Amino acid sequence: MELKIAQKLVLAALAFSGAAFAQTKAPEPDYTLAFNAGLVTDYRYRGISQSRLKPAVQAGIDWTHKSGFYLGTWGSSIKWIKDAGGDAPIEMDFYGGYRFEFSGIAFDAGLLRYQYFNHDLAVSPNTTEAYIAATASVLTVKYSHSLTDTFGFANSKSSYYLDASMLFDLGNGWSVVPHAGYQKIKNFKPGSYSDYSLAINKDFGNGFIGSATIVGTDSDSGVYFTPSGKHTGKTGLVLGVKYNF
User: Fold this and answer.
1) Check: CATH 2.40.160.40 for 30-244?
2) Which of 7, 109, 127, 204 would staple 114 via disulfide (CB 3.0–4.6 Å)?
């Protein structure tokens, strides 16, 4: 009898310790490493098609430290460099920054380098920007300032992009994101324009996300046209699928 009681006590103790262990949170990792890959029917950046209004493949890697520091790289197939007379089929982005919170507002500050290897253009399209963003509730406002000439425009250092977006979570994986921005190209007024978009996103789980976005600009000066006369800033619908892993 005493042996059975002792066995029951041991089992109860093991069960209790197991339950306590299950309830204990795993320690936060020092850093995380995430990968993503996607396909879009048109690669639009700040409202302008980078892929001549045609599909593009994209992929990226993000390293995030628990302190708030992060580094990442992302790439996409493009066509606009070839349309401009160059020879770079890929855009590579390299970025790093720091995220923190102050008085209930989330901030994100960093540097971003757009790199077009072997572009062969007279004025380099390679661009470096510093940025800062602030998020309060559903609203995010971001300011990006170029530290170099901007995307191949000569004497355009200190150009900037100011934008605002809102994220509305509709539940069941659905969200809506309206967005508006203004791209200022310094010393070249015809290159400046406003852009807008409205995205509907669906998180299907297991890392898969689908999107449908209406996007356009007011750029009608003739600057953002392909050699065949296609307006790369016209209003259009962009569909996309992305896998995070």
Assistant:
1) yes
2) 127
